[in-house]
């Protein structure tokens, strides 16, 4: 087994996320992580100015000499199966509105559903909390100002399809 950081919450395909305390987590970026901490932080901050769907960015920090850390709000997912169908429908409607609000503002998440060839939970970037759905992981999110109208429109179409799959997933169980 590979080396694990103390307080690891998850060590996925890309980044390790550790618990810092009860309210904060840190997403770790080491020299061998290809994703870019600065770009992820900027996208998260932008989405945070639009609404509260995306997990809240707190600060950039360092864990040690070769590990940087994106510190964000810690969220605790609940199991949707514990909640009535009507409640799930309502939460899904709010999620849809907030997602569309982000699209309108020029932000697309792009990672609601994991590609079928990647192992793990299918919708592991979607967290249900007692205030409704929240999204984590803006690693591959896109801003319209950066990718241009054409690509952005394609990503939005794709995202709305993934949202419909999520809706089916949540309501059919
Ligand atoms: N804000 C958070 N609160 C609680 N757990 C989190 C948070 N962000 C990430 N995690 C945990 O860490 C995992 C990996 O984080 P994520 O940002 O999705 O990285 P990756 O790019 O590796 O998928 C998540 O699936 C989740 O289990
Ligand atoms: Mg993820």
Descriptive report:
With 173 residues, the chain is an alpha+beta fold. It has a domain at 80-171: Transferase(Phosphotransferase) domain 1 (Transferase(Phosphotransferase), domain 1), CATH 1.10.510.10. Helix content is 36%, strand content 24%. It contains three helices and nine strands; from the N terminus they run βββαββαββββα. The protein has helices at residues 37-50, 85-105, 144-171; strands at 8-11, 16-19, 24-30, 57-64, 67-73, 107-108, 126-129, 132-135, 142-143. The strands form three sheets. It has a five-stranded antiparallel sheet with strand order 1-2-3-5-4, with helices on one face. Strands 6-9 form a two-stranded antiparallel ribbon. It is globular, with a radius of gyration of 16 Å. The protein starts with 7 loop residues before the first strand and ends with a helix. The protein binds adenosine-5'-diphosphate and magnesium ion (MG). Residues 9-10, 12-15, 17, 25, 27, 55, 72-75, 124-125, 136-137, 139 line the site of adenosine-5'-diphosphate (ADP). Magnesium ion (MG) is lined by residues 12, 124-125, 137.
